Amino acid sequence: MNSEQLQQVEQLATTLYTTPDESARQDAQSRLLSLQTSAENIPMAQFILDNSQSHYALLVAANSLTALITTHWNNFTIPQRVEIRNYVLSYLGNSGTSLQGFVQTQLIKLVCRITKLGWFDDPSHRELAEEVTKFLQATVDHCILGLRILNQLVDELNIPTSGRTITQHRKTAVSFRDVSLFRVFQLGLTTLGQLQSNSINAEPNQLRILGEQSLSLCVRCLSFDFIGTNPDESSEDVGTIQVPSNWKTVIQDPDTMALFVFFYTNFDPPRSSKAMEALILLCSCRRSLFSTDRDRAEFLQRLMNAVTILMKNQTGFQHEDNYHQFCRLLGRLKANYQLSELVKADSYIEWLKLASDFTVQSMQNWQFSRNSIHYLLALFGRLVAAVPYVRADTGVKGHSSALEVAVLTVVKSYIDSMLGSVGTVLQADGGLDDPLDDDGSLKEQLERLPTICRFQYTTVAQLILEKFDPIMAEYQQVIASASTVSVDQATMIKLQGLEGQLTWLIYMIGAIVGGHSWSTSHLDDGEETIDASLSRRCDDKLEMAFLYYFQHFRRVYMFMWDQSGSTTMSSISSIITPSSKIGSEHAPTTKQKVYQRMFEHMAMGDHTSVANLIVTKVGNNLKYWPNDEDVVAKTLELFYDMASGYSSSKLLLTLDTVKYLLMHHTSDYFPFLSVPSNCRHRTTFHATLTRLLFSSTAEEMPLSFDAFIEPICKTLSQLGQLSPQELRSEHVKPPLIGVLRDLRGIASSLHNRKTYSMLFDHLFPSHFPLLVRIAEVWYDEPAVTTSLLKFVQEFVYNKANRVNFDQSSPNGILLFRTTSDIVCAYASNSLQHHSTNSAQYGEHDMYKKVYKGYALTLDVLVSALSGNYVCFGVFALYNDPALDYALEIALKLVLSISLDDIMSYPKLSKSYFSFMEILFHNHISAVLGLPTETLMQLMNSIHEGLQSSDAPLSSLCATTIDHLSTFYFDNKGKGDKPEMQNLTRHLNSEPNLFASLTATLFNLLLFGSASNHWAVMRPMLSLMLASEQSFTMYKDQLLSTQAPENKQQLNAAFSKLLEDVARNLDSSNRDRFTQKLTAFRVATRSFLTL
User: Where is the Importin N-terminal domain positioned along the sequence (predicted)?
Assistant: First the structure.
């Protein structure tokens, strides 16, 4: 590289990072990426680093070096690797302090990446931490740079690198842990100690950065994955820290904890919050690290003393980051220490009182702490959950009564604060987020309530009822007055406030009642009557709260439908029969007695009455909330869950409300069915009703299937009588979409031959012609065609072998023939329409208006062709063109889609490659009959899909290739077969077809990610047997790229791969060869170069 080329690189780099022109930036990026294509470009990158003054060019050079080193690691000898690392380290030492931060970061990443990849190559790589001490002992700026290197080093060794196996990563990480990590941690603590004692003479800004980097380094070291558990990085919840035993003296040293407390107390975020994070990790160290219980108790005492002082002085709580981290610390205290240990601490009572006050203060200021409250609730939940396991005379005197007082204080404060939040939000008039709208935070809080509230359930329940009853009475009074006079603004605000408070209370009641688990906790005698008292009490938010409550109540108290022994209706009835009438052999269990007392105390009747109440609420929601999609969706979700159980569905069928739903499932009775936004919910509604209807025997059914489907058939008949012009009219569109959605819901709930045949007999032959006409006249309207094709796809899908006609029945053939007519009618018209109107579609409209319909069409054919209910040979035998037409139009459709579009839309690509797989598997003669150019277009798309990062997609492509190569191998020497003649003709025109596929598969195996190796390896044996020359060519080509010392190893690996491999495609031979391929990959990746 010369100065002129350097100037060009600098201009391109400046354009890449500064220009607002998208096209210019993309052009610059594509040209600069050429630096990352070959290891021969490393000297060019070094020239840029040595000679350029442009920070952007330096960043490009650093990025290129990192990519080249990572990708072409095996291309370098060990001395070359060490030389490159030393060069970059020297560059940082000489010029690093004058570089921009982003250039520093990338160069540091490069040094650490080389260190990780070469960890076992040379001892110098394992000495990086010691070499960095030279930075720490130089100028202040060098010290900062050294701490940044150590931070990145810990991250690099802790996080898996793409392209390396988890075994390789863990081997390196464990060695780093044992050799260097403790030393790095000590360097961080030493720097903090120097800052604490003011031993470093530096500017304030430099001192601030030193503190941040040192604390970050300590946090990274303590959060290192010591034992390979691969924790979820997105989670804030810290598990037990498995620090090595040789860290014990530093962890137990009082000065270590005091150091972090000092930095928290005396500085602002981010230093203080990082110090608190270090304290969280410190208190999470494993129990076995401490030699004796006394050592652990002393450590806990120091920690509790420090926490107590911080709470007493409210130190740093004015900062949100500090506050959040402190809440996490309180939560971790009980998570890592037993209650029996906490109560033995001298300051436990004071600590508990201060923690209670801190929690109360946090809840009163909920608008500043909503993301932290659940940590505090978790603390008290864990405390009360451990009470049964601690003797009253253990630890300090009066700890049990102190906890009772603290818990009641916290619960009362939570209730009052959440109820008070309603008025605060209303007064803010949109200026404050409503905590009821934050589903994630709300769910986390409600999940922790049951354990706390059931600790003193009677008192807590009384608190809730004292709040609930006056609010409900006032709400009813306001509703009554509002119905007689016009409602003013003040009344509306008051009504909203009352509804918001009721919403909170119903959420709380639902969480408390539903938080009980029969299998994991003990239900004290009489608690079910408290549940009943709360349940008896039970704006769209209010409706959502009701539904939340019903779901939780159903899970706990209606569970007996499906889990009470034999779960028959007779056994449920026996629960509510007086005990004197039950024989000793049928004596109710404890759970059944609790269940009986629950419903008796609710005073709402037995379980049937309560179920009827819930289902009536479902019906009312569907009637009176038609325009609120969220309420409709949650209501139908509740209804579906209630209908999912065997016994529960039988119980529901006895209810008058359910019978009414089954007999009146039209928009005349349920307006939500006519709201366009509820189209999807029509499917769920009818799927649930159909599931209920067929959950009983024919004698027990409240109405026949004929009566149930009559309204739908009536609509189909009316639509069938319309002329094409009338059928296309806009006012016909809503009922057309609706009836197709309804039919799809019904079809989705048919799981056996009998029920499927009942629907088939109603639709065939009367209404099938209508479906074809719909495809003909509505082909350009996605809303209609989507509903049509989704129904047809569900109807022809042979799940659970439900599409199973008699041997003498032609229905399977007739079903496919109609499917072919629908597909051909839609696809032919759609292709013609879109070919003339494609320019009108924007990039974002193509999928919705074009490709979604194409994907559904392919899904329909995949379901029909793989259903195993049609003998497709019949069509050719009797000159029926239905199959040929369907395949022909499908091929036209897939060939009309560009490869870029196929790979850009995940749903389209899944449908496309699923169709290719079934086509090559069952209808390869149709594929081989295509012109060579057309076949190669299909093979090129399969070749591209094979290299996709989407594992299921590449698996489909690999299976497709396997079908082709297996066919060729099985039919070698059968030149009289037309299919083989066609395939031979194609291979003569494209002799490199098998060779390119073989090369791609081996490259994926050797150099690709391991996510889908098993599926990708399946076609390799059939390809090798089909074209041994292709395998030999790849082997020779790969050997030619390797250094002389690697060729012998690679030859030996290939020889071992082919040992004991038979020349057949039996399953056992395939499996054995696939296992050998895995061993081949592991053996060769350690020395192969690209």
Answer: 28-94
CA atoms within 13 A of residue 588's CA, in its CB half-sphere: 22
Identity (one letter) of the amino acid at 738? G
Query: What span, in angstroms and rounded, lies between the C-alpha atoms of 112 and 116?
Result: 6
pLDDT bracket for residue 582 (50, 70, 90): very low
Mean pLDDT in residue range 74-95: 88
Rounded to an integer, the average pLDDT of 216-237 is 77
pLDDT of residue 561: 45
Are the C-beta atoms of 695 and 752 separated by less than 8 Å? Answer: no
Report CA-CA distances (Å) from 170 to 120, 158, 165, 248: 13, 9, 9, 23
Range 238-242, long-range pairs (CB < 8 A, 24+ positions): 238/280, 238/281, 238/284, 238/328, 238/332, 239/284, 240/284, 240/285, 240/286, 240/287, 240/336, 241/281, 241/284, 241/285, 241/286, 242/286
The yes-or-no verdict on residue 573 having pLDDT over 70 is no
> Is the pLDDT confidence value at 569 over 80?
no
Q: How many CB atoms are closer than 10 A to CB 177?
A: 20
The token pair that represents 350 in the structure block: 């004071």
Rounded to 10°, the helix 705-720/753-763 angle is 30
Query: Amino acid identity, residue 257?
Result: M
Q: Is 782 exposed, middle or buried (0-12, 13-18, 19+ CB in 10 A)?
A: middle
Residue 154 backbone phi and psi in degrees, to 5: -65, -45
* Cβ atoms 1069, 1023 nearer than 8 A: no
Measured between alpha carbons, how far is 559 from 562 in angstroms, rounded to an integer?
6
Tokens standing for 1037? 């080509």
Distances (CA, A) of 1006 to 435, 504, 629, 954, 1017: 52, 58, 50, 16, 11
Choose among 381, 383, 375, 299: nearest CA to 339: 383
pLDDT digits (tens, 9 = 90+) for 599-616: 677 666 677 888 888 888
Place of tokens 């003011």: 198
Answering whether pTM is above 0.70, one says: yes
Q: What is the mean pLDDT of the chain?
A: 87
Please say if the pLDDT value at position 528 is more than 80.
no
Distance CA 211, CA 259 (A): 12
Strand blocks (E) in 196-329: none
Task: Give the number of other CB atoms < 10 A from CB of residue 169.
Answer: 19
Work out the angle at residue 949's Cα, subtended by the Cα atoms of residues 944 and 954, and round it to the nearest 5 degrees. Answer: 55
Q: In b/e form, how buried is each residue of 658-693, taking b as 16+ CB within 10 angstroms? A: beebbeebebeebebbebeebbebbbbbbbbbbbbb
SS3 1059: coil
Phi/psi of residue 70, each to 5°?
A: -65, -45
Dihedral sign (CA 416, 419, 421, 423): negative
Residues 243, 226 contacting (CB under 8 angstroms): yes
List the structure tokens of 1045: 């010392």
pLDDT at 68 over 50: yes
Q: How would residue 516 be classed by pLDDT, with cut points 50, 70 and 90?
A: low
Distance CA 194, CA 974 (A): 84
Q: What is the pLDDT of residue 775?
A: 95
Token readout for 949 is: 């990062």
User: What is the secondary structure of 639-672 as a DSSP string?
Assistant: HHHHHSSHHHHHHHHTSHHHHHHHH--STTT-GG
Q: What pLDDT digit, counting tens, does each position of 17-46 carry?
A: 988 888 888 888 888 888 888 888 888 888
Which of 127-136, 163-172, 711-720 has the lowest average pLDDT? 163-172
| N-term to C-term CA, the chain | 24
Characterise 38 by phi-psi region: left (phi > 0), alpha (psi -120 to 50), beta (else).
beta
